[in-house]
Amino acid sequence: MRIFYIAAVFGLLLTACNKEEQAIPLNPVIKSIIPAQGPAKTIVSVRGKRFSPNPEENIVKFAGINARVVMATDTLLQVEAPEDGGTGNLTVSVKGRLSKGPVFSYGEIAIEYLNSTYAGAAAGDAVGTLEEARFRSPEGVIMDSKGNLIVADRGNNRIKMISPSGQVSVVAGSGVAGNIDGAADVAQFRNPYKIGIDKDDNIYVADNGNHRVRKIAAGTGLVTTIAGSSAGFLDGVGTAARFNGPIAIATDLNGNVYVADNNNHAIRKIAPNGLVTTIGGNGTTGYGDGVWPNVRFANPSGIAVDAEGNILVADRKNNRIRKITVSTGVVTTVAGNGLSKSVDGNGLKASFAEPFGITVDAKGNFYIADLTSHMVRIMRSTGDVVSIGGDGTAGYLDGGKTGSKYNQPTDAVADANGIIYVADLSNARIRKITPGNPL
Question: What tens digit of pLDDT does each residue of 88-104 get?
Answer without folding.
Answer: 899 999 999 999 999 89
